[in-house]
Each structure stands twice: as C-alpha cells, then as structure tokens.
Amino acid sequence: MEIADIGGATGVFSYWLSQKGHNAHLLDYMPSHIEKAKEKSNTLNITLKSYICGDARQVPYQDNQFDLVLEMGPLYHLQKRNDRIQCLTEAERILKNDGIVICEVISRYVNVFEGFQLNLIDDEQFLAILDENLSTGLHSPGDTSYFTNAYFHTHDEIRCEMEEAGFVDILVLPVEGIGSILNAKQYFENEQRARLLLKYIKETENIPELLGVSGHLMAIGKKCS
C-alpha cells in the first residue's frame, strides 16, 4: 500500500510498515524528528518513500494518492476544532476512494485515572488542569512539567469530527481499554495473567460505556467512493 504517516514523529510506524513491504511516506512538523528519522534509515538499512517536514493541516500530497493515512499524533496536539477538521479534511483529500484513515486521540478522562494512580491529585496545579480537561477538553499545563498543550476527546466528539470531514463507516475503539485503570504492568509480569488481561480487553472493547476508561482512543474511517 501507499501510506502517509502524518505527524509520524521519528517514523516508528513508517519503518515498521516499510518492513512489511509497504511504501511509507513520513511527514512531521518538527525538523528534529525528520532528521532523526533519516538517521534511523542508516541503522535499519531501510529508506522510506519520502521524508517531509510539514503541517498536517496542509499536506503537500496529491489528491487520491494513498491507500491508508495514519494520524497518530496531530489530532491531540491541535486544540482548536477548526484545525482538527482541517487536518482530517486533508487526510480525506489525499486518500483514494475507499481508502482508510486511522487516528489516535487522547481520552477526555485520562487525567482522572492517572491523577489518582500517580497521586497527582495532591497538586493544586494539577487539579486546576484536570478541571479544565473535564469541562472543555483543553489541556493547558502552563509553566508546569505536565504533558504539553493538547486536546482530549470524548468518543462521540472524534466520531463527529470525522463525519464532518467526510468519512464513513467510522469505528472508535479503545487502545488500552480497561488496562488504563489497572496496574497493567503487574499483570504482564505473569504470562497467564497477561493473557487473561488481553482477552478481556478484547472482549470489552466494543462496549460504549467503557470507552472512556481507555487512555487513548483509535478512530478508523473510510473515504466514501
């Protein structure tokens, strides 16, 4: 397949897909990420189809060029809805008919769970950030050391944004699922318990009521032919 990895950082997905035999094109906003991605080329002895430093809201690709577009970072880095819609609209433009987009977003409720798991609730600055997360979806850490400026989605929100950009057959799935509210590391230290955890993450991933407990959500859509 011809694949565009938009906001793909240093190319973790691009190189993996290239190893699978696909033609991966990497685009990222940060020049340092693109340079590091090119350095990986020598280490892995793989060259991607293209390396571009660019903006996900205005990508330098042709209409109907790709079978698959990955948006694994841009949507949670764009705090304004119009920017996110533009990003998705560009993905729709460069996809072939019936092409697929796969997006990753951060769950609206991630800081509720992490706040208690990591005892961040003892910090008044964190609580102020958390209150803003829950009321607006915005994550603005200011001068603190917490995660950078971002936007946290609900599952209905990302579905609506993808629909507005023209995608159909949209599916929203949890990435970590119920693992986000557990100390997952301790389960992976035991093979049987790890197998059980993965089993029940899979069995519960289509339950709408549980989507919000996942730290990240994956939204998949198709370009209408």
Please name the defining characteristics of this protein.
225 residues; Rossmann fold; nine-stranded mixed beta sheet; 9 helices
Give a description of the structure.
The structure is a single chain. The chain has a domain of 130 residues: Vaccinia Virus protein VP39 (Rossmann fold, 3-Layer(aba) Sandwich), CATH 3.40.50.150. Helices cover 40% and strands 25% of the residues. Strand 1, helix 1 and strand 2 form a beta-alpha-beta unit. It has 225 residues and is α/β, with parallel strands linked by helices. The mean pLDDT is 96.
Task: Explain the layout of strands and helices.
Blueprint: E1 2-6, H1 12-19, E2 23-28, H2 31-44, E3 50-53, E4 66-71, H3 74-77, H4 81-94, E5 95-107, H5 110-117, H6 124-136, E6 138-139, E7 150-153, H7 155-164, E8 167-174, H8 184-188, H9 191-204, E9 216-223
Parallel strand pairs: 1-2, 1-4, 2-3, 4-5, 5-7
Antiparallel strand pairs: 5-9, 6-7, 8-9
Mean pLDDT across the residues is 96
CATH superfamily of the domain at 55-108 and 148-223: Vaccinia Virus protein VP39
Helix/strand class? alpha/beta
CATH architecture of the domain at 55-108 and 148-223: 3-Layer(aba) Sandwich
Described by its quaternary structure, the protein is single chain
DSSP E strands, number: 9
Helix content class: 40-55%
Radius of gyration: 18 Å
**Helix/strand order:** EHEHEEHHEHHEEHEHHE
What profile does the largest beta sheet have? Answer: 9 strands, mixed
Provide a count of the helices.
9
Q: Unreliable stretches, pLDDT < 50, 5 or more residues?
A: none
Distance, first to last CA: 18 Å
What is the class of the domain at 55-108 and 148-223 in the CATH system? Answer: Alpha Beta
Write down the overall geometry: globular
* Percent of residues in β-strands: 15-25%
